Amino acid sequence: MTVMEFSDWLSATSASQFIQVTTWVIPSLQTVHILTLALLFASALMVDLRVLGTGLRSESLRAVADRFIPTIWPCLVVLLITGSLLIVAEPARTLGNPAFYLKMICLAAAIIVTLWLRAFARGSRPVGGLASMLAVVSLLLWATIIVAGRYIAYIESN
Ligand code: HEM
Q1: Contacts 24+ apart (CB under 8 A), 25-30
Q2: Statement: the pTM of the whole predicted model exceeds 0.90
Q3: What distance in angstroms lies between residue 137's CA and the mean position of ligand 1's atoms?
Q4: What's the burial of 2, exposed, middle or buried (CB within 10 Å: 0-12/13-18/19+)?
Q5: How far is ligand 1, taken at its centre, from the CA of residue 12, in Å?
Q6: Residue 71 CB: number of other CB atoms within 10 A?
Q7: Other Cβ atoms within 10 Å of 108 Cβ, number
Q8: Distance in angstroms (rounded) separating the CA atoms of residues 41 and 26
């Protein structure tokens, strides 16, 4: 089964049909998706800026990481659920769209970098070049995910 065949099958299911004809569902899912990603990005930003030495310097890196990183995981679950429902609603918009696949690759990388930063914050090594580099990569990855998410609407699916 090709991606397009799967997409056609998915959009004909009763779940997809329900979302398509119930006008408030898609805007509601988009609203939750956007508010949740704002919370996730704000949390990642706090940790990254602390690693870079430009934010919350009165607190230890470990305290900042322990406060903000646990917010990221439930946000990801909500984004996964709302994002998956948006795919069910309009599969052809997303499946086969290069911006969506770029977003998913960057998301996997961002999760790994976040786990790495957490391990770093919990360890005893002083903050140095490697941690700073990870914080910059983390910011770039989250920013790319957000831009790619928005771009799904503007790039044609293959
Ligand atoms: C966890 C899995 C995720 C899935 C399956 C997913 C899926 C989707 C889908 C299907 C759309 C709708 C695209 C469209 O039709 O125009 C979307 C929009 C978007 N997503 Fe995600 N997403 C996920 C996570 C994330 C994360 C982690 C971020 C950012 C940190 C993010 C940022 C965005 C943005 C900015 C939009 C555009 C919203 C708009 O302007 O309407 N997504 N996502």
Answers
A1: 25/85, 25/89, 26/86, 26/89, 26/90, 29/82, 29/85, 29/86, 29/89, 30/82, 30/86
A2: yes
A3: 20
A4: exposed
A5: 22
A6: 16
A7: 10
A8: 22
- Total residue length of the chain: 158
Q: Is 31 in the pocket of ligand 1 (CB under 6 A)?
A: no
84 in ligand 1 pocket by Cβ < 6 Å? yes
Residue 48 has pLDDT above 80, yes or no: yes
Quick check: CB of 150 below 6 Å from ligand 1?
A: yes
- Distance in Å, CA 57 to ligand 1 centroid: 32
What is the CA 41 to chain-centroid distance, rounded?
8
- Residue whose CA lies nearest to ligand 1 atom number 11: 83
Ligand 1 centroid to Cα of residue 52, in Å, is 27
| Residue 114 pLDDT level (bands cut at 50, 70, 90) | very high
- What are the domain boundaries of the chain? 3-151
Residue 44 Cβ < 6 Å to ligand 1 = no
Among the listed residues 94, 12, 77, the one whose alpha carbon sits nearest the alpha carbon of residue 39: 77
Q: What is the mean pLDDT of residues 99-121?
A: 97
Q: Which of 112, 120, 146 is nearest to 52 (CA)?
A: 120
